[in-house]
Amino acid sequence: MSRVGKMPIALPKGVDVSVTADKISVKGSLGTLVRPVNELVTVKNEDGKVLFSPANESVAADAMSGTMRALVANMVNGVSKGFEKKLNLVGVGFRAQAQGPS
Description:
Elements: H1 3-6, E1 9-10, E2 16-19, E3 23-28, E4 31-36, E5 41-46, E6 49-54, H2 59-80
Antiparallel strand pairs: 1-6, 2-3, 3-4, 5-6
């Protein structure tokens, strides 16, 4: 089984995940994200954790379980913390300033 797919996703406070037969919906303080569920992966929401497992013993199902886990973890991060990009300027002679909405 995929090492990434084995790890459960711990849900932070204020994030709700609802799993139906064909989609996963993640709702948090910054919005709601919806993603279709692949038929090769079974998804369970238990005790504040989201668990992923392959639906069968194929290599494709194993790989897709890790992929779905990573995608849903990014969805949880997006609705709870949002997107942030930090820049590091290293060197001499560079000048930078923020422009636009920040």
